[in-house]
């Protein structure tokens, strides 16, 4: 069995006041459960930047492949400098939880998180129960609220 590795790294200075306040604002804006989710998004963006730095000297075809992959998940990039300019908020904007609020299916980020975890949101007709799901541009318009099925219970007839 393969060992699962961490998807993020903790901040080097755990009690940096400016960082803590910034993360608090981001956490509230995006309705995140904890700051670990911010660190995960930051790590994903860091990986994208590292790939872009490696592709500076690569052929345009290889660069274009990276840009197309990032454009599929909804990040507006067309050059290496665009990829290097990405921020964790760009990545957090592509989460299912945030998109459900933007589409006005839920009123707040917290309620959208609850709806997703309670399996009330469909993406392409399939239930997605992970608020951190990164929504591709192709399925962004196919997000909908699951309809409730009304089950009619059989009426018991009293025998006399």
Task: Give the secondary structure arrangement, pairings included.
Blueprint: H1 17-30, H2 35-54, H3 60-72, H4 80-84, H5 88-92, H6 96-102, H7 109-117, E1 121-123, E2 126-127, E3 143-145
Antiparallel strand pairs: 1-2, 1-3
Keywords:
7 helices; Structural Genomics Hypothetical 15.5 Kd Protein In mrcA-pckA Intergenic Region, Chain A; mainly alpha; single chain; three-stranded antiparallel β-sheet; 160 residues
Biggest sheet overview? 3 strands, antiparallel
Mean pLDDT reading: 93
- Helical segment tally? 7
State Rg: 21 Å
Helix amount, in percent? 40-55%
Shape: extended
Question: Unreliable segments (pLDDT under 50, ≥5 consecutive)?
Answer: none
Q: H/E order of the elements?
A: HHHHHHHEEE
Kindly estimate the percentage of residues that lie in beta strands according to DSSP: 5-15%
Summarize the structure.
By secondary structure, the chain is mainly α.
Please provide a written account of the structure.
The protein has seven helices and three strands; from the N terminus they run αααααααβββ. The chain has 160 residues and is mostly helical. The protein has two domains: 15-94, no CATH class; 95-147, Roll (Structural Genomics Hypothetical 15.5 Kd Protein In mrcA-pckA Intergenic Region, Chain A), CATH 3.10.290. A three-stranded antiparallel sheet has the order 2-1-3, with no helix packed on it. Helix 6 packs across helix 7. It is extended. The termini are far apart.
């Amino acid at each position: 069995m393969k060992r699962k590795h961490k998807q993020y790294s903790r901040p080097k200075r755990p009690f940096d006041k400016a960082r803590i306040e910034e993360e608090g604002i981001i956490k509230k804006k995006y309705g995140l459960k904890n700051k670990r989710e911010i660190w995960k998004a930051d790590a994903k963006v860091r990986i994208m930047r590292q790939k872009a730095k490696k592709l500076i000297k690569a052929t345009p075809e290889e660069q274009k492949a990276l840009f197309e992959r990032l454009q599929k998940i909804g990040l507006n990039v067309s050059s290496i400098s665009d990829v290097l300019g990405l921020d964790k908020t760009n990545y957090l904007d592509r989460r299912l939880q945030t998109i459900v609020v933007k589409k006005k299916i839920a009123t707040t980020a917290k309620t959208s998180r609850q709806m997703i975890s309670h399996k009330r949101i469909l993406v392409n007709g399939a239930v997605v129960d992970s608020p951190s799901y990164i929504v591709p541009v192709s399925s962004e318009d196919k997000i909908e609220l699951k309809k409730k099925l009304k089950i009619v219970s059989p009426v018991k007839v009293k025998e006399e």
